[in-house]
Amino acid sequence: MLMLPFFVYGTLRPGEPNHDLFLRGRTHAEEPATMRGVVLYDGPGYPYAVEEPGSADGLVTGEVVTARPEAYGELLRSLDLLEEYAPGDPANLYERVERPATLDDGTVVRAWVYVAAPAVAVRLRAWGKLIEGGDWRARR
């Protein structure tokens, strides 16, 4: 199993409701980071990252979360359930993809990130509310 860290940008960030429920006690490190090539849309109580590889404005703020090795498998399963992601399921709201994230010190790491599934992304681009600046916390 590829044990990549996770890039989190919404309810899994420190101080947000799902952080303690899913990540407390399971992480080795949580570091501020950004991800290029994605933009954020407001969802019903949580954000969606939508891939926009050609967008010069595509930058999302979040954290790179590194799981403790002994907790990795359980955490991956829990996050997939939270995000309603099942590999290859056309009903997915999110897809888990591997993308580069940049830590505050400039280091680039490969990380899992949950992005809007293609059908969801189409709807968000047409009718969604873009979160300017790419920081879900700053939208409030």
From TrEMBL:
InterPro entries membership: AIG2-like_dom, GGCT-like, GGCT-like_sf
Domain Gamma-glutamylcyclotransferase AIG2-like residue range list: 6-137
Protein name: Gamma-glutamylcyclotransferase AIG2-like domain-containing protein
Superkingdom of origin organism: Bacteria
SUPFAM superfamilies for this protein: Gamma-glutamyl cyclotransferase-like
